[in-house]
């Protein structure tokens, strides 16, 4: 019989406590003074916020500033020199709680077990032979219980499960409204998964989940406004505005893939023509590559190989894709003025084929100072999508406690 991990409750019940904790999580180890400065809180408020977190073991005193940030990845704040007794550092105890993240693709499930700092302890994959919601949920549950068995060996509680799915996802309701790659409609995934797995569950769009991971633990740490653009099967965009990941009133903010960049372009599955995704998504590139080369092109890897062989017309397919992506990124920069745009996703395997066109199209279409936006590429393995799902579970555990979807 499978055991259900005990429910873990995060002790910070005030916004200030959650704010201090997330500041230390993303930027620590920090002195209390520095944590307060970054969080915009008084020393007294920081002391009050830190006390229950230390008592419950989520924060610990001491730590080497040269040893890395709370997440093991983000920037480390330098402790400011003070007169008299050196200021003590506060850091997150990553071993205090564990989390599971699952990314569902059209044909595979990728899962990770992480600590509280979102450091991956174990990753695993399994095929998804049946995309229907019922069988897929059973496969997710099997994978989660496999990771729970590993987690039990550590003795730390598993405090949450995050599931990342492409498409229109209502995080507040824990429902997948529509996922084109899974062909799901109106699936109450959080409630179903909580019952099947015995954990609090957070469900989110996969690009938004990856954006949360970048905001708290990656290239977006410390930035108030940035965007993550993902290139692959689809073209996605996660937005952070004034320090918050934006979902929009209906959960579909950041749909850069369905910006029309060529009204006379190829039809898109959304019903429009010339969308970024209809030109630069994997399926669009593969279809166009077959058309221009006359070769059988089964997948993205084959398309990349043909382009590298310099077959007539092959490189132009990627040039056109790069131009579409660059124009889409410029639209984001013009509208929101982010400090940074992070380009990621499995499609970066072909980045050398369209990097120049992305940059040229972005520079041409970005208006004024929007062109000063820092555009970075960040190749990430598929496990990072699952890590993004774990990141939203951590976020929910800290900021929305008690977590929704608890079984």
Protein architecture, described:
The strands form four sheets. The chain has a five-stranded mixed β-sheet. Strands 14-13-12-15-16 form a five-stranded mixed β-sheet, sandwiched between helices. The chain is globular, with a radius of gyration of 22 Å. It starts with 14 loop residues before the first helix and ends in an 8-residue tail after the last helix. With 407 residues, the protein is of the alpha/beta class. The protein has helices at residues 15-27, 32-39, 43-55, 133-152, 189-197, 206-217, 276-280, 282-293, 300-308, 314-336, 351-365, 383-399; strands at residues 30-31, 59-61, 89-92, 98-104, 108-115, 120-127, 158-165, 168-170, 175-179, 184-187, 201-205, 226-231, 235-241, 244-245, 340-344, 374-377. The longest helix is centred in the C-terminal third of the chain and has 23 residues, at 314-336. Pfam families: ROK. InterPro entries: ATPase_NBD, ROK, ROK_cs, WH-like_DNA-bd_sf, WH_DNA-bd_sf. This is Sugar kinase.
């Amino acid at each position: 019989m499978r055991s259900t991990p005990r429910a873990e409750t995060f002790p910070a019940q005030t916004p200030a406590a959650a704010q201090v904790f997330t500041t230390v999580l993303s930027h620590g180890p920090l002195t209390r003074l520095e944590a307060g400065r970054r969080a915009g809180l008084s020393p007294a408020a920081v002391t009050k916020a830190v006390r229950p977190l230390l008592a419950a073991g989520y924060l610990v005193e001491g730590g080497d500033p040269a040893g890395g940030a709370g997440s093991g990845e983000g920037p480390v704040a330098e402790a400011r020199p003070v007169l008299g007794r050196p200021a003590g550092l506060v850091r997150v105890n990553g071993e205090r709680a564990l989390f599971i993240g699952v990314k569902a693709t059209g044909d595979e499930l990728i899962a990770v077990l992480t600590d509280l700092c979102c450091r991956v302890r174990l990753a695993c994959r399994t095929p998804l032979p049946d995309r229907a919601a019922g069988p897929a949920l059973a496969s997710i549950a099997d994978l989660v219980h496999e990771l729970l068995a590993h987690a039990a060996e550590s003795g730390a509680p598993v405090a949450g499960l995050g599931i990342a799915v492409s498409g229109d996802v209502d995080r507040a309701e824990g429902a997948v409204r529509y996922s084109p790659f899974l062909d799901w409609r109106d699936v109450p995934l959080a409630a179903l998964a909580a019952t099947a797995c015995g954990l609090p569950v957070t469900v989110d769009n996969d690009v938004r989940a990856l954006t949360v991971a970048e905001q708290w633990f990656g290239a977006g740490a410390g930035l108030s406004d940035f965007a993550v653009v993902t290139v692959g099967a689809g073209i996605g965009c996660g937005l952070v505005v004034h320090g918050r990941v934006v979902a929009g009133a209906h959960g579909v903010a950041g749909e850069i893939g369905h910006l029309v960049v060529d009204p006379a372009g190829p039809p898109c599955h959304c019903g429009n023509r010339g969308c970024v995704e209809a030109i630069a998504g994997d399926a669009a590139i593969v279809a166009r590559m077959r058309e221009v080369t006359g070769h059988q092109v089964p997948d993205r890897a084959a398309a990349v190989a043909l382009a590298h062989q310099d077959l007539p017309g092959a490189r132009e397919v990627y040039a056109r894709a790069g131009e579409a992506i660059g124009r889409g990124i410029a639209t984001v920069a013009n509208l929101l003025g982010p400090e940074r745009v992070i380009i990621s996703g499995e499609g970066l395997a072909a980045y050398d084929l369209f990097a120049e066109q992305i940059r040229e199209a972005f520079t041409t279409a970005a208006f004024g100072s929007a062109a000063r936006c820092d555009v970075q590429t960040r190749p990430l393995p598929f496990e990072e999508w699952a890590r993004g799902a774990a990141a939203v579970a951590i976020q929910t555990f800290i900021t929305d406690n008690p977590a929704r979807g608890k079984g």
